[in-house]
Amino acid sequence: MDSGWSIRGRLFSLWLLMLIIVSIAVYWSTNAVVERSLREGQDRNLQAVAQVILDSAIKADTSIDFELPYQAFEVLAYSAPERIYYAVFLDSEILSGYADLPQSENLGQSSYGEIYRGESTRFYVASKPIRPGSSEQFRVLIGQTETSYQKQSSTIAAWIAFAVLASFGLLALWAELSLRHALKPVVAIEKDLIARPADDFSPIERQVPSEVVRLVQTLNRIFEQHRGLLQENRAFIAEATHQIKTPIAAILMRAELLEREVEESSRSAVKDLIIRARYASKLSTQLLMRATLTYREVLGARDQVDIGGLVAGILRTLDPVAEIKDVGLVGDELESAGLVVFGDRIALREGITCLIDNAIDYAPSLTDVEVSVRRVNGRV
Predict the structure, then answer these.
(1) Which residues contact 370 (CB under 8 A, 6 or more apart)?
(2) Potential cystine with 96: which of 38, 88, 248, 311 (Cβ 3.0-4.6 Å)?
(3) pTM (2 decimals)?
């Protein structure tokens, strides 16, 4: 019976599928968490710089004293090698910086991301009144590109996913070794059954895991059933040999004696009875021999057989039958052929006997049946 699937292969497939799913999930979740963490840190730096710029503006009586603190941008330069953009407004009037920086549509949102000059950029906006209670607002908008932050988050996520992948690989190796160790009792049972003779139906006494106890119990029940069938088969062959062949032999003997005693007019009927009795004896012998050969085939009976000596013995047995039919049996130097085969001696004897017996039956009278044993192309 061909195996439809493998436990090891199915477990490996499920493990690999789980590994792929978990790795993708870990990568995306880690990338999202790291990106969010880095973005929060970037927002804090932008907020600090914006606050320094706000604090640098001083409202005089008739003017605003403002000088951009360029040293504040060093905080952003140290955190990441990114481009920095800024704009300083007094209400809607720009005092310094880039006038085309994108404004957030949500007035209550202090930090947001936009695509500016082809790059993903993070912006932070801060404002304060030019003096307490004034409606005029001094507003600072500062932005920093996010390329290095995104690369950093992707790199961290990739390394974490790789670590998870490596961990799962080690776990898969451990699972493979564990599975092999767990299947050792099953492999041992297989080897035990292969090494058994065909007629050995003794129960399996080996200690097995609880998962395969029911399988072993089922095998033991099947062994017990087959052992009973084997014993019944042996008893049937022995009983049939005695109960069938003996009465038929008695009928044949009585019919042959009766042939000498009956009148001439009844002899044809007695001869017909003798023929039928001989046919029944031959048929029963063949049936019993077939049962015997089937039993021996199950047992795997094999030994070294000298074919030449076997054929010579068969010829001596069939010689009286050939003489009755005026047929000669010729077999020269059979026993000295020295050709040995490996097989069932009884089956070989019956097969060769049937072959030679057929040759005798169909040979014309006063002819010879020549029998030889030789090796042709490596075969006997």
Answers:
(1) 330, 331
(2) 88
(3) 0.43
